[in-house]
Amino acid sequence: MAKLTMKEIAKLAKVSQSTVSRVINGNEKVNEDAAKRVLKVIEDVGYIPNSAAQTLKRSQSKIIGVCVTETYNPYFVELVDVLESEARKLGYSILLHNSKHNPITEWESIQNFIARQADGVICIPTGEYNLQRMNKLGIPTVIITQNHQSLDSVGLDHMQAGKIAAEKFIHAGHTKFGFIGTALDDKFLGYKSVLYENGFDFDLNNFIRVEEASTNNYLIRQDIESYLKEKKEQLDFTCIFAGNDLVALEFLEMAQERKIRIPEDISLIGFDDTYLSKIMGISSIHQPIEDMVKTTLEVLLNRIENEVSTEKVNIKLDPVLIERTSSNYKKS
Amino acid sequence: MAKLTMKEIAKLAKVSQSTVSRVINGNEKVNEDAAKRVLKVIEDVGYIPNSAAQTLKRSQSKIIGVCVTETYNPYFVELVDVLESEARKLGYSILLHNSKHNPITEWESIQNFIARQADGVICIPTGEYNLQRMNKLGIPTVIITQNHQSLDSVGLDHMQAGKIAAEKFIHAGHTKFGFIGTALDDKFLGYKSVLYENGFDFDLNNFIRVEEASTNNYLIRQDIESYLKEKKEQLDFTCIFAGNDLVALEFLEMAQERKIRIPEDISLIGFDDTYLSKIMGISSIHQPIEDMVKTTLEVLLNRIENEVSTEKVNIKLDPVLIERTSSNYKKS
DNA sequence: CTGTTAGCGCATTCAA
DNA sequence: TTGAATGCGCTAACAG
């Protein structure tokens, strides 16, 4: 099946090539009879318009470039999944890239999106590295799952998530608090602030630091082990909030190996509410993926369609704690 | 940053547009001085060639369309991940679609790939539905993770996987065998055949049927529950091989709830060797993802570059059993 | 309502 | 070595 062009369809249907274009795009009036003929030929030969040509002509590709940082976390997988199906409903295809937390790769991806004339970009940034450049791109871009003032963004209120976790722990009667995650995380800030407001202290010795780059079980485990080694296996907290479910999971496994009971000895709350937490019975803070995706797409399409460069939009969605067994324990 | 074209680069560098094209593509000789100027301008203004135009002109898009059936199974996620990074190394971008096991969606995706002038297609088919049509597409296509004689394919030897599981169980002293998975699965055939060869019978009452469409924990669980109900909660086997890790996981959870000990009461082997099995300690049959992806890409690129329509290639890779605790038990 | 024409941005042939 | 000219497949303005 050699590739057919409109010209050939036109010849077969005995009309001009522009008429074929008209019936395909269906905006202008075409003689009913001619239209039928054209449609039949298209059907018969299985003609599909060349979108490279359309893109060139229309200066519009109907492509959205999506760049994520990893797919190890099931949360991102679901995000991409929803993104793809929602975008498809709106007539867009997804060009998917995975930066693997590498800013250089990220930038290459963005360049690729530009080269391919993507109408818009949705990005989970690797950090601040490329944000400025992205801003000057001249292509609508929205950040998802995070908030950055310099660009349109829709994320979760991470600060609020931390607060919710802290409140839960405080209400359950805990007095010694732990945190496990990356160094710079609004969740930690929110967590800590609620502790202070309630007269508690956060002891930095109870911060188990996980590297940004620790994106798989094994690496996270190493971070935990090295913490334990440093602390001579002594844990001085009765509850802990984890920056994401992967981290929560590894903490849980580590605890089980050491006969630390969850939640009796240590209560645990994770983040993302992926099925990892579901299968392991880990309480977790839920991110509304569908909402987030739909909102993101709305913001993006709005930028694509009305290029009025109004102020940046920064939307923060609300987190919800999903309670499971890992935090189901009240201190006397 | 308005979008720049070659023409404008040419003007800025005081050369003709074709010269700019020459220095970018670098095949033809260009005056060294002029080349330098062009490169500088490109660098300065951040020019990126419009690949829609290139695609149109070259009849080559450097896009590979990838259509998977789901991303719920982490195995597919990893597959896509590796696919993307390997394809990128080879200068290709991935257009990713998710058919969600719907043949209509699948066909739409393929059409989209054609419209976008994809140079090749890699597909995990939803079934036999679109295979014939795909074959007549005139665009190189290879099936991954499955084998179909009518198209190029690279998959695992599922039959062999079933055999390995059966052998393991037989050697461990089992005499009553179970299987959980979809109805038509070569793994089951392999499994059964080894049982027969060794003088055992497979009792179809021990086949827990999971629907093809049961692609998440909840649906799988329903299939299991309805089986248990039918059998009045009586399980007449001491070992079971699961068609994939998700299914194995649900079986495990169901068993735990019912105080059925794994592996003491029932030994379990899963399939795919995803991290689900790793975190749950489920023995599982490993699929060599990297091998599979690289081989697939090799086959595909070979088709793209030399359109010699030789015989179909059907490659079957070897499965390997990764033993964990869920099968670590010898019947006396 | 329809055909002719121009041109999107680029690679490439042909002259110079 | 280089510029001018052509055309990839399509949309859209224009003239009929």
UniProtKB/TrEMBL annotation, chains A, B:
Q: Which UniProt keywords apply?
A: DNA-binding, Transcription, Transcription regulation
Residue span, HTH cro/C1-type domain: 2-48
Which InterPro entries does the entry mention? Cro/C1-type_HTH (IPR001387), HTH_LacI (IPR000843), LacI/GalR-like_sensor (IPR046335), Lambda_DNA-bd_dom_sf (IPR010982), Peripla_BP_I (IPR028082)
Q: Where is the HTH lacI-type domain?
A: 4-58
| GO molecular function terms listed in the Swiss-Prot or TrEMBL record | DNA-binding transcription factor activity; transcription cis-regulatory region binding
Give one Pfam family, short name only.
Peripla_BP_3
| PANTHER family in UniProt | HTH-TYPE TRANSCRIPTIONAL REGULATOR GALS, LACI-RELATED TRANSCRIPTIONAL REPRESSOR
Name recorded for this polypeptide: LacI family transcriptional regulator
Q: Which organism is this entry from?
A: Oceanobacillus sojae
